[in-house]
Amino acid sequence: AAMCAPTEPNATTAATTTTSSPNSTTTTAQENDKQEYYCLDVWAIPPEMYTLTNEERKKTLPTLHRHHKGPFPPNSLTTPSPITLSEEVTAIIMLLIIIGGPLLWIWSTIAALLFGSWKIRTAAVLISTILAYHPLPSSPEFSEKAMASTYTQCLYKYFSYRFVWKNDALQKVQNAEPFLAAGPPHGVLPIANLLSIPGTNVLGCMKFVGAPASIVFRTPFLRYMTLYPSIHVDRASIIKSIVENGTSTGLVPDGIAGIFKQSDHAEVVALKHRKGMARLALSTGTPIIPAYSFNNTAAFSAWWDPYGILENISRKMQASLFLYWGRFGCCPIPRRVQITMVYGEPIRVDKVEGGNPTMEQVDELHERILDGIRDCFESHKHALGLGEKELIFE
Asked: Going by C-beta distance under 8 Å and a sequence separation of 6 or more, which residues neighbour residue 130?
């Protein structure tokens, strides 16, 4: 959940960026028709399921899977979940605190510093410091309660949250060694990725953490997202999580750059030249799970200058600077869109001797990652209502 002017690809560029490599793992339509497709409506999980042990959940959850021979029919996974008024209000309040809170803090602090007396300025700095540094609960027991809480279940329902996969991908992921998961696109806020943390831990029965940008841990209100298990996105923290702690880690691989690629006409992912994940996986021998976060880009609309000024500042500061809006017009509340995390089969990665992969090795693995992400998108986009969308890597 990580928080140069972007150029619109012409027809030639689009064709180039979506062409599969000769070793592509992207499946054809004929191959798809022979495969088994599955969906878990996370929002529909009964509350008593959260009280079971991991082993009990593993045995029970398959009875809740939806199954289809060949791809699910077009738009068949687009039915919004039912939600009560109290559940919707609960979700909106949570989202308003986490997403709207930073805006209130930024503008009120700026106003206080520019127009306030010295007492008001001092108070603003003190309040900001407290909001940025006050301790958050960090015990495993608290994290488990937060991930299985009624509040989390309200968020599942607000976004009609689903997991979707093909064949035995779920079993392979559950049986894999600690892995890196790559689930673009970022959008204004990577909601699918955030909800995948409790979903993977509680329902996938795996140890799993998210890796947001470091600034998230010190941004007032936004930092409450890290109440779900989270680590810093730097290389050392990721290696420690996977190699030393045996905990799988999820990334939004297009990061801040991905925010400035959001488009109404296509799914544009800023990943074509971002190869850090491949290099890290090769140096540690960590398998990679390709994934795709459907409708991350539909929850909010965004605006930034056409000259790339905000993008350049954002990337240097590692903080997102742009305008965005969602539900109710100008409110910082995401629209009630249907969010789905699609994941593919693990990509096995052999550790490079000495931990220093060659550029050729990095490029080859990077292409496999792109192919895996592309397959996640193309195999499920029609069922999820995005059949007219094209996936473009830039």
From this structure: none
φ, ψ of residue 323 to 5 degrees: the values are -100, 140
Q: Which pair of structure tokens corresponds to residue 340? A: 């789905």
Instruction: With both helix axes pointing from N to C terminus, report the angle between 85-95 and 150-158 in degrees, rounded to the nearest 10.
Output: 100
Distance, in Å, from the CA atom of 8 to the CA atom of 262, rounded to the nearest integer, reads 11
The CA distance from 377 to 343, in Å, is: 9
Helix axes 118-133, 101-115, angle to 10 degrees: 150
**Whole-angstrom Cα distance, residue 193 to residue 258?**
14
Our CA dihedral for 360, 255, 304, 316, rounded to 10 degrees, sits at -80
Q: Are 308 and 198 in contact (CB under 8 A)?
A: no
At residue 43, what is the residue type?
Answer: W
- Per-residue pLDDT tens for 124-164? 999 999 999 999 998 999 999 999 999 999 999 999 999 99
With H, G, I as helix, E, B as strand and everything else as coil, classify residue 194: helix
Q: d(Cα 248, Cα 177) in Å, to the nearest integer?
A: 8
d(C-alpha 340, C-alpha 193), whole Å: 9
Q: What is the DSSP letter of 148?
A: T
Element (DSSP H or E) covering residue 146: helix 140-147
User: Are 66 and 38 in contact, with CB atoms under 8 Å apart?
Assistant: yes
Contacts of 128 (CB under 8 A, 6+ apart): 105, 109, 220
| Dihedral sign from CA coordinates of 375, 345, 232, 341 | positive
For residue 327, what is the DSSP state?
Answer: T
Distance separating alpha carbons of residues 318 and 33, to the nearest angstrom: 43
Whether 327 contacts 333, CB under 8 Å: yes
Identify whether the C-beta of residue 391 lies closer than 8 Å to the C-beta of residue 269: yes
Per-residue pLDDT tens digits for 253-294: 998 888 888 888 899 999 999 999 999 999 999 999 999 999
What's the pTM? Answer: 0.88
Residue with tokens 């903080």: 319
374 and 267 in contact (C-beta within 8 Å)? no
- Tokens at residue 334, please? 């995401």
